Amino acid sequence: MTNGKLLTGLPIAVDFWKLPPSNGLYLYFLTHLHTDHTKGLTSTWTETIYTSSLNRDLAISMLKVNPELIKPLEIGVSYKMNRFVSVTPIDANHIKGSVMYLFEGSFGRLLYTGDFRWCESMINDPVLKNLSESKDLNVLYIDNTFEHIGNEFPTREQCTLDVLKIMKNHPYHRIIFGCQTIGKEDVLLQASLERKEKVYVPETILKCYRLLGLPCEEIFTTDQADSLLWFEKLNQISQFDLKKKNSEMPTIAIKLTASGLLYKSTKFKDDELIFTVPYSNHSSASELAKCLDFLQPGLVERIVRTNTQKLGLSVIDKFHSFLATIKAAEMTDDITSDSMEISSFDSPVFKSQDPDYFYSAVSQFQSPMPIAPTGTEDTALSEDMDEELLLELGSPRIPVAAQRSPLLTKTSGELDEVLTEVNSIVISISSDIDQFEEDDNYYIYSDAFFEKLMVLHKNYQPFTDIPTHKLME
Ligand SMILES: [Zn+2]
């Protein structure tokens, strides 16, 4: 999965590493080092890349990119790249090193957020403040990872306190922290201080943490026997594994992700071995709304391709409607008091904190019935989406019965219905394959594609007759 883009009509590629060599025609920018933003960037890369200085160190260490090709840029400083383009990096408040980019030239002003978490202090950032005041941001390329999740995320500070609370409730347990490569290290630091114990991390992660300037010798160890606090890749955490670990000693896992953020998962599930704390490095829907309100862009482009459209209008859809209303007023030259009101921040069409919208978004997530299966759009999820959410997001595209129990007790009429549903999954999988071939030969199997195969296998094994080992290979 990739979450990068070529900017429309411009020779500028951000987190996009799939073009053939352009001999300097394209300008390449890197926002941060999560893998969904670096796919295709390897030691064989031959063109100049611009990024923050920490990203440069990480790209050299993690991806073995030729150091001579990566030019560091300072946050807040405007650089003239050539006659046509200037760029200013801005702190993205996502993970350490991550940056947004403001591109300026005769084409106008474009802001590319990359992955980011909007926060109140951003209204004081000189570059963003200037954009807001001048009201001339032409295009905002925005991280829409959580555009459909309506309820507020707790702050990262609150989430860290929640983690410590769970730890206090399990003083003698081994605790597994579900993390991505980088981005959750602040929680591990606090956990180490709480238990007065080092945190186990794999050698590769420790290498990254050293580059981040963390106090590695005091806080981390690469010997599992040294610690009862373990780093684990988010997607490695499962009930099965936890049960196995509990046969050795009492163990719980804390998944640090907002990707499964339903209303219910903001509460601790004390009856489970796995806790989810919605520590998010992406903006919540209401934070996206605040960002849109503040910047008032003329156009909004999504960076992350999702298949959540069927979950109802998102905050970005609402902003698009708001823009359409303004355009319609301009087309008819209808500069009345009404249209003037619409173009203000307090627009009745678009509000930062629309309780009805947020309530409906939450209700839809809590809805017991999956939404009708339609659409064939490919799925490219950012690194914060774990399998739990893949299942949630995948549900609109998978027929209802496919998510229910196996079919051993079905009548023949019901079996016909089920076979039709199986057929529709197969058609959906086939259309995915078509799309991969058209879109991108590089990826044969997406997560969503594999997910569908697993659903098919799990629920229809008696019919599909596919031996387990064949799917798992
Ligand atoms: Zn990221």
TrEMBL record:
Any single Gene Ontology cellular-component annotation: chromosome, telomeric region
GO molecular function, one term: 5'-3' DNA exonuclease activity
Reaction(s) catalysed (UniProt annotation): a beta-lactam + H2O = a substituted beta-amino acid
GO biological process terms, semicolon-separated: double-strand break repair via nonhomologous end joining; interstrand cross-link repair; telomere maintenance
Keyword vocabulary terms for this entry: Chromosome, DNA damage, DNA repair, Exonuclease, Hydrolase, Nuclease, Nucleus, Telomere
Subcellular location, record wording: Chromosome, Telomere; Nucleus
UniProt-listed Enzyme Commission number(s): 3.5.2.6
Residue ranges annotated for the DNA repair metallo-beta-lactamase domain, each copy included: 235-298
Coarse class of the protein's main subcellular location: nucleus
EC primary class: hydrolase
Family membership: Belongs to the DNA repair metallo-beta-lactamase (DRMBL) family.
Protein known as: 5' exonuclease Apollo
Originating species: Daphnia pulex
